[in-house]
Write a structure and sequence with these properties.
The chain is α+β, with helices and mostly antiparallel strands and about 325 residues long. The protein contains six helices and 13 strands. It has one domain: HIT family, subunit A (2-Layer Sandwich). Bound molecules: zinc ion.
Length: about 325
């Protein structure tokens, strides 16, 4: 029999249906990820092809070459400064696509993967995300800054070269609005941050905790919507990714490497999306939101029921996912 679990941070119910697990597979109609090469002369993100992207706006430089490179997206979803004035009436409202859409090229190596890069380099990538977050958050029009990474064709990536993206939006994204509304209500009811309470209870329960490093924890949330969904979050109150402190950078890099490496070994190297959720840009001082980095493997595709109901069906209980990830991480560490 299936079980329904409610996510206290969204009030959404997810369906745990382990008996449907046989349905998990790599989506057969998707192209396989090509065999990687360390340099691809046709790739716009490989060294030597820098002129194929818009001019660099940030990153990390070594003595003789770039290590991490930030460029505007060539085909941005949002672009540039301007007014956020709405036009039209309630039925036909619109506004200009003011905002920013940037690409973080994570390594000069075409075939690099975050879990294989040395921790120092992953720290550079995360530090670059934080720099871009802080810079974009200051823009007058910015309502949210979303950091994400699409890995593999099942996660929507079109370029193999390792990269992530930072988008600053001129409106509150619906996901962010919902989470913020639920967190506000919870704070009003209890005087606590719903995420702080959730993380504290998960750490007491323990069976869904994947790993802890310093002041950060990785866990498979109680109401995981997808197989092997994993969150990395602070164990103390911190509402926005821009507030991440230098002292926690290295621990976050290590945890992220562990989680991605564990996922690769335990779950058959799935395509995945990575998303960093934060409080809305001007609400960082409020005590009721907690930033968290989510890794969402793409091991099935939402079908009619999911689209029609907004509910997800998860075939791997998070307790089992966490146990498998813990074991895989321990095995990798021993190699
Ligand atoms: Zn490349």
């Amino acid at each position: 029999m299936s079980t329904l679990r409610q996510d206290p941070t969204t009030k959404e119910w997810v369906i745990l249906a382990p008996h449907r697990a046989a349905r998990i597979h790599r989506l057969p109609w998707l192209p396989a990820r090509p065999d990687p090469v360390d340099h691809d002369p046709t790739c716009p993100f490989c060294p030597g092809n820098e002129s194929q992207t818009p001019p660099e706006i940030g990153g990390v430089r070594g003595e003789d070459a770039w290590r991490v490179r930030v460029v505007p997206n060539l085909v941005p979803a949002f672009d540039g400064e301007g007014t956020t004035e709405r036009r039209g009436g309630p039925a036909f409202r619109e506004m200009g696509g003011v905002g920013a859409h940037e690409v973080v090229v994570e390594s000069p190596r075409h075939d690099a993967r975050l879990e294989e890069l040395d921790p120092e380099h992953v720290t550079r990538v995360i530090d670059t995300w934080r720099t871009r977050y802080r810079d974009l958050k200051r823009r007058a029009w910015a309502r949210a800054v979303v950091i994400f990474k699409n890995f593999g064709p099942g996660a929507g990536t079109s370029i193999l070269h390792p990269h992530s993206q930072v988008v600053a939006t001129p409106v509150f994204p619906p996901e962010s609005l919902l989470r913020f509304a639920v967190a506000t209500r919870y704070y009003d009811d209890t005087g606590h941050c719903v995420y702080d309470d959730l993380i504290a209870e998960e750490r007491v329960a323990g069976d869904r905790v994947v790993s802890e490093r310093g002041r950060l924890v990785a866990l498979a949330p109680y109401a995981s919507g997808t197989p092997y969904e994993t969150w990395i979050a602070p164990t103390f109150h911190q509402s926005s990714f821009g507030q991440l402190e230098d002292d926690d950078l290295e621990d976050l890099a290590q945890l992220l490497r562990d989680v991605l490496g564990g996922l690769r070994d335990a779950a058959g190297d799935p395509d995945f999306n990575l998303v960093v959720a934060s409080a809305p840009a001007h609400e960082e001082s409020k005590p009721f939101f907690l930033w968290h980095l989510k890794v969402l493997p793409r091991m099935s595709t939402p079908a009619g029921f999911e689209l029609g109901s907004g509910m997800s069906i998860n075939t791997v209980p998070p307790e089992e996912a966490a146990a498998a990830l813990r074991e895989a991480i321990t095995t990798r560490a021993g190699r």
